[in-house]
Give the backbone structure.
Amino acid sequence: MMTQEEKSQAVIRHKINVVLIFFLITQIITWHHNAKFIPKLGIFSEPPTLVQAHINSLGDEQFYFRFLALDLQNSGDTFGRYTPLREYDYTLLKKWLFLLDDLDPRSNFLPSIASYYYSNTQNVQDVRYIIDYLEYTYDKDPKAKWWWLAQATLLAFHKLHDKTLSIRLAVKLSATPSQKMPRWAQQMPAIVLAQYGEREMALAIIKDLANRYDDYSQPEINYMNYFIRKRLGYLNETIDKKPTKEDNSGWYMK
Amino acid sequence: MKITSIIRYTLLTAMRDWLYLGIMVLVICSIFLSVFLGSTAISEQGKMSIAYIGGSVRMITIIGLILFVCFHVRRSFENKEIELVLTRPISRVQFVLLYYTGFAVLALTLIIPIIAIMYLAVYNFQYVDFSQDELKIATDGMVLWSISFFFETLIVIAFSFFAALILESAVFAVLSTFSFYFISRVMGFFLVSIANPASTMHSSALGYYAEKILYGIGMLLPRLDMFSRSEWLIYGLSDVNQYLLFLGSSLVYISFIMTMALFDFVRKQF
C-alpha cells in the first residue's frame, strides 16, 4: 500500500517521463528541420594578411604554416567531395601560396603542390598564376630554389605555350649563380629556343656555355654534341672539349 | 622537514591525479595523429609530421601543467594541506620555493620521456624526406627545442603557481594563466605593430591607447614566441645568441614572478 507521499512522488515521476518524451520528440523534429541547413563548403577562403597569420600562429609559425599548407593541399577535396581543378579560383590560390611562402620560404612543399598538382588545371590560363608563384619563391633564394624555376619554365613552354615567358624564365634560370645547378638547367634557354626553331641562337648559347666553363663530364659533352647535331641539325659543328670531371649526372637522385 | 618531502609530495599528487598517464596518452595519440596527417601530404611528409608533433605536444603539456598546478594549489589551500605543512619547521619563503621546485621537477620528469618518444618519431623519418645532414640538423634542433621547451614550462608553471596563490578560484587562475600564455605568445607581433609608424592602430584614439596599454603590459610579460619553435625541429637553430638571450631572460622572469608570489604569500593570513 503506497503512502500519500509515495503516490505524490509517483505522479511527479510520471509527469517528468511524459515531459521527457515530449521534449525528446520535439528535439528530433527540430533536428530534422535544422538538418536541412547544410554548411556551404567553399574551396578557398580569402587568406589572412601576413600579420594576421603571425598572430594566429601564436608564436609558432612553422606549426601554423604546416597546418595551413596541408589544408591548402586538401582544399576542395574534403568531406567526401572531389572538385575538378577548373572550378578552383586560382587568384585566391595564388594569394594563399604567396602568404604561406612568406611564412616559410625554405619549405619545398608549396612549390611541389603548385607545380606537380595545381598546374594540372583544365583552365590552362590559370597556370600563369602557378608560374608567378614559382618565380616568386625562386627570387627569394635562387641557389636553393632553381628547380622550381625550371618547373616554371617547363609549364610556360609545355602548358601555356607562351614563347616570350618561357624564354625569359629559361634565361633567368640559366643565370642562377649556383655551382650545384646541373648543366641542363644552364642550357635551358637553348633547349627552349630550339623548340621554337631559333636554331642559331640555341647554337650560340650552347657554344657560349661550353666556352665559359671547363668542368664538363664526358656525358655532358656528348649531350652538347648530340644537341647541336641531331636537335639543331648543325652536322659540322662540334664541342671539342676534354672532360675534367667524373659523371655526376645523377647527383640529384642520391 | 626534509627538502625533498614537498617535491616528492608534488610528484605523488601528480601521479594520483593521473597527470603523467593522461599527458603521455594524449602525447602518444597526438604523435600518431600527426604522423597520419603528415603522411597525407604530397611531399615533405616527415617535416609535416614533425611540425605537427612539436606544436601539439607543446600545447598538450602546457595545458596539462597549467590545469594541474592551478587546481593542485587551490585544492591544497581548501584542504588546509598548506596550513598543515606550514606548522612544520619551514619558513614561508622556503615553502614557496620548494613548492615551485617540485613543479619544476614534475615538468622535467614529464618532458624527458616525451622528448624520448619524439626522438623515436623523428628518427623514424630518416628515410622519408630527411637526408643524413638534415637529420643531424633536426636532431640537434630537437635538443635545443627540448631545452627551450623546459624553460617555457618553467615560466608557465611559475605564473600558474603565482596565479593560484593569489587568486581564490582555481578556474579564475587557469583562465588568467591561459590569457597570460596567449598574450605572451603573440606579444612579438604586437611589438611589430607598435614599432610600425604606419600601423593602422594609430588611426584612432582608441587604437592608440590600446597600443600604449599593450606596450605597458608587454613590459611585464615574457616573449614566449621565442621559445620552442617548431622550425628548429626541421631547419635547426639559426641564431644561437638570440636563443641564449631568451633562455637567460626566462630566469629573470621566473625570479620576478616568484618574488611576486613570495610578496603575496608572506602577507597571507590563514
User: Anything to note?
Assistant: Chain A has two domains: 44-162, 182-254.
